[in-house]
């Protein structure tokens, strides 16, 4: 079967939703999927929430330490330990500034608390696995994009030298970059190979009762055929929600080839692409959820198979 062209896969519906733009992601299976880009407002709102958390966390830790009943006695009798605790506190502050975003974005959700509240997350622009190197790169650039520009903006206000003006324009350009590209990506996204997309917690176009009916379509799958993880399950969920015929056909063909699915002898029993995907989604979801009850999770198809 010939590989579908990008134009064919996206010709069913307009680009984006409600005037928003979408990023085309070519998955490792060779399927092109559109992901709605996070808006500048959503990204800015998430950043403000995260900065607020970052500012309040050390304050809360300090107040808890001060409120401890043994604080004064400890400070008087353990001078060396007090000095070490101060070092630990400053190291903690450094982690909050430099490691906060990395720690959360390397998790399964690929999102900080601010991003989760705004219903956005980080993905790899090529549809592959979000690597630690990509997360490190996009967040290391935040020093250049956010912290240094803020410092320069304040410095430019108190100086009229040409250097200060140039620094101000440079800082302003970096801060406004997401406004002037259709993917609303910042410099760290481009260099890290990442994008931030809108991932609302919306329900499927059918409810959970329908999933039980989908399992009765006469399609069964072995545990070896349920060869995907939570990441692919979310992608499949979006494919079923969008219900784009060309995309469902491409995804169904890729899954059938990967799991070595044998079609029924009678052509009249051949399920439609949507019915096949619904049945596979229900089976995969039930399989993953049953393993979660035993404390076992599979993030994606590259993780070891569940037994």
What is the topological layout?
Elements: H1 6-9, E1 22-26, E2 32-36, H2 40-67, H3 71-77, H4 79-105, H5 113-117, E3 120-124, H6 132-140, H7 142-157, H8 162-176, H9 187-192, E4 194-198, H10 208-214, H11 230-242, H12 245-259, H13 273-292
Helix pairs in contact: 2-4, 4-6, 7-8, 11-13, 12-13
Distinctive features:
307 residues; mainly alpha; two-stranded antiparallel sheet; two-stranded antiparallel ribbon; 13 helices; 4 strands; 7% strand; globular
Explain this structure to me?
With 307 residues, the chain is mainly alpha-helical. The protein has a domain at 208-263 and 270-292. It is 56% helix and 7% strand. It has 13 helices and 4 strands. The strands form 2 sheets. The chain has a two-stranded antiparallel ribbon with strand order 1-2. It has a two-stranded antiparallel sheet with strand order 3-4. The chain starts with 5 loop residues before the first helix and ends in a 15-residue tail after the last helix.
Roughly what fraction of the amino acids lie in strands? Answer: 5-15%
Q: Which structural class fits the helix and strand makeup?
A: mainly alpha
Overall pLDDT: 77
Output the number of helix runs.
13
Radius of gyration: 25 Å
Helix content range: 55-70%
Low-confidence stretches: 1-16, 202-209
Distance between the termini: 33 Å
Question: How would a crystallographer describe the biggest sheet?
Answer: 2 strands, antiparallel
Instruction: State the total count of DSSP E strands.
Output: 4
- Overall form: globular
Strand ordering within the main sheet = 1-2
Order of helices and strands: HEEHHHHEHHHHEHHHH
């Amino acid at each position: 079967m010939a590989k579908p062209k990008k134009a064919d896969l996206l010709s069913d519906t307009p680009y984006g939703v409600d005037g928003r733009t979408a990023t085309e992601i070519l998955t490792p299976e060779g399927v092109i999927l559109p992901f709605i880009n996070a808006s500048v407002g959503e990204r800015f709102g998430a950043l403000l929430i995260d900065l607020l958390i970052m500012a309040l966390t050390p304050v809360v830790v300090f107040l808890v330490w001060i409120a401890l009943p043994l604080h004064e006695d400890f400070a008087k009798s353990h001078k060396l330990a007090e000095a070490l605790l101060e070092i630990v506190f400053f190291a903690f502050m450094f982690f909050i500034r430099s490691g906060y975003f990395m720690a959360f974005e390397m998790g399964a959700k690929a999102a900080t608390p601010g991003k989760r509240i705004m219903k956005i997350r980080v993905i790899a622009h090529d549809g592959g696995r979000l690597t630690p190197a990509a997360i490190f790169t996009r967040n290391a650039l935040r020093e250049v994009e956010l912290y240094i520009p803020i410092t320069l903006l304040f410095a430019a206000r108190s100086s009229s030298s040409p250097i200060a003006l140039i620094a101000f324009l440079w800082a302003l350009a970096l801060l406004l970059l997401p406004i002037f590209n259709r993917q609303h990506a910042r410099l760290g996204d481009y260099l890290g190979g990442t994008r931030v997309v809108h991932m609302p917690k919306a329900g499927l176009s059918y409810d959970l009762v329908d999933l039980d009916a989908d399992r009765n379509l006469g399609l069964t799958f072995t545990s070896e055929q349920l060869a995907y993880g939570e990441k692919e399950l979310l992608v499949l969920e979006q494919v079923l929600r969008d219900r784009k015929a060309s995309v469902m056909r491409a995804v169904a063909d890729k899954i059938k080839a990967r799991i070595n699915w044998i079609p029924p002898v009678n052509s009249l029993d051949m399920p439609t692409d949507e019915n096949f995907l619904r049945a596979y989604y229900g089976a995969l979801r039930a399989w993953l959820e049953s393993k979660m009850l035993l404390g076992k999770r599979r993030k994606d198809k590259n993780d070891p198979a569940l037994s």
